[in-house]
Amino acid sequence: MNNIFEAPFVKEMCDTTANMYRLGWDERNGGNISYLLDPAMAEAYLDPKTVLRTLPLDFDASPLAGRYLIVTATGKYFKNVAGCPQNNMGVIRIRPDGKAYDILWGFADGSRPTSELPTHLMNHIARLKADPEHRVVMHCHPLNILAMTYVHDLDEKAFTKTLWRMSTECIVVFPEGVGVLPWMVCGNDAIGEATAKKIKDHRVVLWAAHGIFGTGETMDEAFGLIETVEKAAQVFMTIGQMPIRQSITDPQLADLCHAFKIQPRAGYLNV
Prior knowledge:
39% of the residues lie in helices and 17% in strands. With 271 residues, the protein is of the alpha+beta class. The chain has two domains: 1-114, 3-Layer(aba) Sandwich (L-fuculose-1-phosphate Aldolase), CATH 3.40.225.10; 116-271, Class II aldolase/adducin N-terminal domain (L-fuculose-1-phosphate Aldolase). A nine-stranded mixed beta sheet has the order 2-5-4-3-1-6-9-8-7, with helices on both faces. α4 (117-130) runs parallel beside α8, α5 (143-151) crosses α9 (219-239) and α6 (156-166) crosses α9. The longest helix has 21 residues, at 219-239. The protein is elongated.
């Protein structure tokens, strides 16, 4: 059995959580990540027969039955993950009936996965239907996108078009736009279900006055998506009180889509 501390997925989680904390996206114990693992890769570092604990789920996760995920822990700080991975994250496997999960590694101090685990699982299920290569769900609290949800209309079309206009790359990176939810209590099934509805056709969903959910095929892709949205929000929050003399127009956004052979969200561009 290979040393799990050398596993690429453990190293990637350590590097990503450290970077997110450095950027100020995950203060205190804020934020969480889940990463669907290739079974062969997981079993190269873990004995699938060795179950440390089994914990219940309060919804049906059977579409993920048998799947392995590495998940950050509840109540833990991202700044500590790299120094003590086994206490601050762990690998779980969804039970065949979808009503529970096995802990195979990690959560060594008796902790458990993030309180947002149901939301993560619901969103993995939704994204796998849209993209079978989907692997990562990432939640964090970037400063500027959080601030923007206080001062901008929460209408999805309006919010998306403002972000698209803040930087040339935005419509290329997220041509489907952003999903937006009003403020909701976090850590329960209701916000998970609402997010999953949005994430079927958006790879990023904003939680007003809270943060952002981003998804992707890889850790880099999910991180880069959030990074791009946050940079656009930073531009908006920087110039928002100033008179705007020029902007990227809808015809110019359409030109970008044509040049990069992408399809923007239907009905969003007036061309």
